[in-house]
What we know:
Elements (H helix, E strand, L loop, with lengths): L3 H10 L2 H7 L4 H5 L1 H24 L5 H25 L9 H11 L5 H12 L3 H11 L5 H13 L3 H14 L4 H13 L3 H14 L4 H13 L3 H16 L3
Helix pairs in contact: 1-4, 4-5, 5-6, 6-7, 7-8, 7-9, 8-9, 9-10, 9-11, 10-11, 11-12, 11-13, 12-13, 13-14
Amino acid sequence: FFWTPPHFWALSLYRADDYARAGIPMLPVVAGDQETRRQIVIYTLILAPLGVAPWLLGYAGPLYGIAAVAAGAAMIALALRVRATALFALERPELLPEMADGLERVAPNRGWGALARGAYHILRKEPNQAASWLAKAEVDPDVETLLTVAAGWLTIRNPSAAERVFKRILEMDPANAGAEIGIAVVAMARRDFIAAEAALQRALAHDPARAATYETMAKVYLETGRKTQAKRMKKIARRLARHGF
């Protein structure tokens, strides 16, 4: 039983709007996003030792034990990461340093703890301190984490740093549409709409069903006086958003 909540609640976070429209009382619908993420951590902390129990009780060999310990630790790290991601918008930013401590203990070689500390300073409107931690978070090898780091740089209005991270992501994953959208946002901030449109065209080639690409393209078209094309892009974006893309 205990493996079910963290798995299905994580999925339900990404389809909460669909569940709400269908009237299905999944946890994110009835308790909210933050409580769902907290419960994911709680059930994961219960699940991890249960997974190791067969080995500790002598029902499984050492190979199973090693695998169970590694998988349990990974599951805890991912659950804490889900929780930390939500804390970018948390009403209680004072919890972020505590969360960062936990992330650093579980995954000392990842950038999650530094990212959480950067979020803390972003929420406190301390861009210099945030920049210090975001720079440390850039050591993380995970593309999704780096996208969050880049978003942090954009939040504190440092497009050059964000662009550096987006380019690194594209070196790791040349077909990453999210990074291309980020490159476009940076180009728009510099009023370079030709470069922005080129990046968005690449994003569309990689992932033609992402609403954010069309929304950003609409902004480019509006800035360059192409209102008809902008209207068409907005219409496509709304249609994709309704289907969860």
